[in-house]
Design brief:
Layout lengths: L4 H11 L2 H7 L18 H18 L3 E3 L10 E5 L7 H13 L6 E5 L9 H8 L2 E2 L2 H9 L3 E4 L4 H4 L15 H9 L3 E7 L7 E5 L10 E4 L10 E4 L15 H25 L6
Parallel strand pairs: 1-9, 2-5, 2-6, 3-4, 3-5
Antiparallel strand pairs: 6-9, 7-8
Helix pairs in contact: 1-3, 3-4, 3-5, 8-9
C-alpha cells in the first residue's frame, strides 16, 4: 500500500538535509480540500520523491545542468525533452533538477503514457509526486492552473530506440505545440545527454504487455549504467500564432519542427561539451 502523507514526511525528514526541507516549505500547492491537489499530488510525497531521487541525482548520475534560468519562475510552460534509456529515469532527473534549482521551488508535472499510472505502487508514488496521465483534459487543466508540464514528444519510441540511433530524435509529435498555441504558453526545449546510453536495449518481447506496457525490453545490462547526466535548458519558444491556429496541421508541423531543432541543437552542444560517457 502507498504510504500516508504523515509517514512520507517522517521518511523525508530523516533523509533530506534541513536546507532542502526548508525550501520545500515554500512549495506552491493548491489543496482541493482533502490534502491533495486535483491530480493527487501531496507535498509530503514530493518531499519523499526528492529523498528517493536525490542520491541518484547527486551520486549515481552526478547531474550537471545548464540554463535553469530559462525555466519560468511562475506561470504555465511546457518543457519538451528528448526521451531515452528504457526506464524513465530522465523524467525523474529533470523533475529533481527543476525542484531543486528553481526559487521558489516548482514541481514539474511529467505527462506519462496511459499505462504508467496503473503500475503497482510506483504509479501511485509518481502521481503523488506530480505525474499526470497523458490526456488532453489533464493537460488543459494543468496549464490553466499555471503548472510546469514535462512532455517527451518522441513518446515510447524514444525510450525504445536502439543504441545505433541514440541522440537521433524519433518522430516528433505535435501535441505539445498544439497545447502551447491554444493556451498561449511557452515551450522550453530540453536536451538530456547521458540518458540515451544508460541502459542499452538489444531487443524486446512484444507479446508481453504487463500492466498495459507496449512490450518488455531486453537490455544489455540489468541495471542502468552510472552515466553522467547533462541537462540543458534552452530559451523559451513563444509562437506568434492565434489559438485558432492550433487546429492548423501546417502551423503545428512548423512549430513542432522549431522545437525539435532547438532540442537537437542542445544535444549537439551537450555532446560536444561532455568529456566522456561517465564524465
Amino acid at each position: 500500500m502507498p504510504v500516508s502523507p504523515e509517514i512520507a514526511w517522517r521518511i523525508a525528514e530523516r533523509l533530506l538535509p534541513a536546507a532542502e526541507r526548508e525550501r520545500l516549505a515554500h512549495l506552491s500547492f493548491r489543496d482541493e480540500g482533502h490534502g491533495y491537489d486535483a491530480f493527487g499530488l501531496h507535498p509530503a510525497h514530493v518531499a519523499l520523491g526528492l529523498a528517493i531521487t536525490a542520491p541518484l541525482y547527486d551520486s549515481y548520475f552526478r547531474v550537471i545542468s545548464r540554463g535553469i534560468d530559462h525555466v519560468p519562475v511562475e506561470g504555465a510552460a511546457i518543457l519538451a525533452a528528448n526521451h531515452a534509456g528504457t526506464l524513465p529515469l530522465d523524467a525523474m532527473m529533470i523533475w529533481t533538477d527543476v525542484l531543486r534549482r528553481t526559487t521558489p521551488p516548482r514541481v514539474l508535472r511529467p505527462v506519462a503514457d496511459h499505462f504508467v499510472p496503473s503500475l503497482p505502487l510506483v504509479g501511485t508514488l509518481f502521481t503523488r509526486g506530480g505525474m499526470v496521465g497523458g490526456s488532453r483534459g489533464n493537460a488543459r487543466a494543468l496549464l490553466e492552473a499555471g503548472n510546469l508540464m514535462l512532455v517527451f514528444p518522441e513518446g515510447v519510441p524514444g525510450i525504445g530506440k536502439p543504441w545505433s540511433e541514440r541522440y537521433h530524435l524519433q518522430e516528433w509529435r505535435v501535441g505539445h505545440v498544439e497545447l502551447a498555441i491554444r493556451h498561449g504558453v511557452p515551450v522550453v526545449p530540453v536536451g538530456v545527454v547521458g540518458s540515451e546510453e544508460q541502459m542499452p536495449q538489444v531487443g524486446r518481447l512484444d507479446f508481453l504487455k504487463p500492466f498495459g506496457a507496449p512490450y518488455v525490453p531486453i537490455t544489455l545490462t540489468p541495471l542502468p549504467l552510472p552515466v553522467r547526466y547533462h541537462i540543458h535548458y534552452g530559451a523559451p519558444i513563444r509562437f506568434d500564432l492565434t489559438p485558432g491556429q492550433a487546429d492548423d496541421p501546417a502551423a503545428l508541423a512548423e512549430a513542432a519542427a522549431q522545437v525539435k531543432a532547438a532540442v537537437e541543437e542542445l544535444l549537439r552542444v551537450g555532446l560536444a561539451l561532455r568529456r566522456g560517457l561517465f564524465a
